[in-house]
Amino acid sequence: MVPAATVLLVVTSCTDASPSSSSKPVSPQTSTAPAATTPFTTSGRTTAMNIRLTIDGHRIDATLNDSATARDFAAQLPLALSLRDFNQTEKTADLPRRLSTSGAPEGSDPKAGDLAYYAPWGTLATYYRDAPYATGLIPIGQMTDGGGTEQLAGAGEISVEAAP
Length: 164
Known about the structure:
Elements lengths: L3 H11 L4 H5 L17 E2 L2 E2 L2 E7 L2 E7 L3 H7 L4 E4 L1 E3 L3 E5 L12 E2 L5 E5 L4 E5 L6 E2 L1 E7 L4 H6 L3 E6 L2
Antiparallel strand pairs: 1-2, 3-4, 3-13, 4-12, 5-13, 6-7, 7-10, 8-11, 9-10, 9-12
C-alpha cells in the first residue's frame, strides 16, 4: 500500500497548473518583467531607453538597446562608477552585480561610442576607439553624442542615469 502523502506528491509534481496560473492564463507575448524595466515599454511596444552619461562633469546622451542585458543594466540605474583604461581603447567599470545574458550574441565588434557588457568579467565597457571582435562582449547601447568619446578617453569616473 502507498501512503497518501506519496500519492499526493506524485500527483502535484506531474501537473503544471498552480493556483495562480490556473486563474490567469499567461500568453507567450505577455511580459512578466519586473517593474524596473518599464521605461522600455511604450503603449505595449518595446523601445530603446535614453540614458545620460556624465563624464568628468560633461553630459553625454546615449541610448540603450532593447535586449535583456540592457534592461537588466537599466534596472541598476542610477550608477556612479570608477573607470579603468583597457588597451587604450575602452574604459571598463565593475557593476554592482552581473547582468542577464539571455538571448545575447556570442560576442561583438565594438565601435567608438559603444556601450557593452563584458560577461566573462561582469564589467561595463565603454569604447572611445574601435576594437576587434571579442567573445563574451554584449552590446547594450551607444552614445548619441559624438563628442562623448573624446571625454571618455581621459575619464576616471562616469555616472549613468535614465534621461529625463
